[in-house]
Amino acid sequence: MPRKASNLELWVVLAVALAVIIVLPCLNAFTPDGSWLHVSNFTITIYGKYLCYAMLAISVDLLWGYTGLLSLGQALFFSLGGYMMGMYLMRMIGDLGQYHQPIPDFLVFLGWSTLPAFWKPFACFPFAMLMAVLLPGTLAGVFGYLAFRSRIRGVYFSILTQALTYAACLLFFRNSLLLGGNTGFTDFKFILGHDLREPATQRALFVSSAIALLLVYLLCKWLTQTKFGRIQRAIRDSENRVMFSGYSTANFKLFIFILAAIIASLAGVLYVPQVGIINPSEMATDKSLETVVWVAVGGRGTLVGPIIGAFAVNAMKSWATRAYPDLWLIFLGTMFVLVTIFMPKGIIGLPAQLRALLKKYRRGKPNGQPAPVVSGEEILPAKSK
Amino acid sequence: MTTPNPRPFVLTLEGVNKSFDGFKAISDLNFYMDEGELRTIIGPNGAGKSTMMDIITGRTRPDTGKVEFGRDTDLTTLNVPEINRLGIGRKFQTPSVYIHHTVFENLLLSLKGPRGVFVTLFARTTSEERDRIEAVLKTVGLTARAEDLAGSLSHGQKQWLEIGMLLAQDPKLLLVDEPAAGMTDEETHKTGELLLSLEGKHSIIVIEHDMTFVRQIARKVTVLHQGHVLCEGTVDEVQNDERVKEVYLGRKKKH
């Protein structure tokens, strides 16, 4: 039964992915403006952004839903990927900036006349991409190694990841880091020789994001079905048992932490050219927290849940920030509380929850058997004759 | 040129001490166990039984003393997974099984074999592994529940599953902490029979409070008190020992 359901899920995902990758861009490119079938450029950019958020959400779920590690710092890795892409895009501006200098505007503003050495290789796209994998991967590796080796678990791990993100956020705000300070990078012009303001370029980025999300989904689908995936969930349910079965759980957690960091970074790489800006506010603690809410709303411990959650919550955010701009955070918080209490399995678990509820009302009595009575332990051993 | 130990103990604890914030949990503990032995350890609360298990399995390091497995494996320098891989399995007092995995999967993850991250990425379940799991399922009486989620098992069945998970690893030494706690009389009796059937194939240490159960399984009983061995012997010898009575009934103690 679960295996069949999981096959069904795979086919549904593939069908939706096909529609997203082929149909939406075609409707954008080949239907006239104003036709009821037309998908606007604005819609393509918005959904492209959501696709990146969905990837970020999967990385959170891989840690939280599957391994029991609630990371409140995934936005850090997302931003690092974004910054690596941003550095490449800044180099591609060339001398078309406000100051018409061959170096990025903010460097001119800071009084530089030549490019700092570490900026030089970022004109090379493959190098920027390599760094987008290596930098978050290494940071996650070092941080994870220290945290898991010291057996930091549960809420302490969450707090540490949040502190790390906050520290990085403060660091990136500094102008002396030469990464744009609080304004970050913006006013991008070209990517791989294509004009970013062209709808065709945005379409290509949208399709790339959709394909990347599909590949990430398939990779995680495979991973969670291997023995590794089973051990991952076993760690979530009873880490002690896993350790006392001879597995070094620290190594398993480290592997998954690095993998999740790279997935988040990849999402950031695709996100930045679509939204056209990256700055340290992307690392702010609330960004990471928001991602956790997406996963909770969609349904953690599943791979489709985070995707649904990322789309649903962000669609709601788009609407709410326009309709009630001051109330969004209250909205978000309330949603998190309500979902946690009433829908612990999120949107994806709703059908099963409703079915169970229906069954319960049909039977007319509360569902569930009474808990087995645990008899008190016999503490006094000796009944001496 | 050391002379080999004449008696092949499977487990040796000598002069072991362990304090927590000034509280002496284990004090000058000496404990020897023969290969294939089924040993029962009893003792009042706070006698150091669980700390002793923690020291053997590497969860706690002793302050001083020798802890050896087999002839010359020093356990005090190894960590929990390493000690487990040597062939020491431990069952916790409260059942700890993977509730979101099936009974079959619980055993699959416990089978003896490589434990590395990358090996598990590409591991496939072989037919030998299936046979081994079938055999363990039969031993612990859970064949019919193989495809059910472990979370759906009764308390007693979870305890048996956890014992099965230890057996799947084919350990040399089994540490079983209060297996009968919270079980019905019938389940307790079945658990006793299960442990007795393992005698000889594995060395087993059972910690237990329930004296009916101890009577059922006990060969040699060790009584722990205040972190060291108070006495050892058969159930009757131990129960008639004046010091044991004093410790348990606690009335004649002079301070």
Question: How would you describe the oligomerization state of the chains in this entry?
Answer: heterodimer
- As a percent range, the share of helical residues of chain B equals 25-40%
- Topology, number of strands of chain B: 10
Shape of chain A: globular
Distance between the termini of chain A: 57 Å
- Give the mean pLDDT of chain A: 91
Number of strands of chain A: 4
Cα separation of the termini of chain B: 48 Å
Shape of chain B: globular
Low-confidence stretches of chain A: 367-385
Biggest interface found: A-B, 35 and 49 residues
From the alpha carbons, calculate the radius of gyration of chain B and give it in angstroms: 19 Å
**CATH third-level topology of chain B:** Rossmann fold
Looking at CATH, the homologous superfamily of chain B is: P-loop containing nucleotide triphosphate hydrolases
The major pleated sheet of chain A works out as: 2 strands, antiparallel
User: What is the CATH top level name of chain B?
Assistant: Alpha Beta
Q: Rg of chain A to the nearest angstrom?
A: 24 Å
Question: Biggest sheet of chain B, in brief?
Answer: 6 strands, mixed
User: Which structural category fits the helices and strands of chain B?
Assistant: alpha/beta
SSE pattern of chain A: HHHHHHEEEHHHEHHHH
The figure for the number of domains of chain A is 1
List the helices and strands and how they pair.
The complex is a heterodimer of chains A (385) and B (255).
Chain A (H helix, E strand, L loop, with lengths): L1 H29 L10 H27 L6 H19 L12 H5 L15 H25 L4 H20 L11 E2 L3 E2 L2 E2 L3 H27 L1 H17 L5 H27 L1 E2 L6 H14 L5 H20 L4 H15 L7 H14 L22
Antiparallel strand pairs in A: 1-4, 2-3
Helix pairs in contact in A: 1-7, 2-7, 2-9, 2-10, 2-11, 3-5, 3-9, 5-9, 7-9, 10-11, 10-12
Chain B lengths: L8 E12 L2 E12 L3 E5 L6 H9 L6 E6 L3 E2 L5 H6 L2 E4 L11 H8 L6 H5 L5 H14 L14 H14 L4 E5 L7 H14 L4 E5 L3 H7 L2 E6 L2 E6 L1 H5 L2 H8 L6
Parallel strand pairs in B: 3-8, 3-9, 6-7, 7-8
Antiparallel strand pairs in B: 1-2, 1-4, 4-5, 9-10
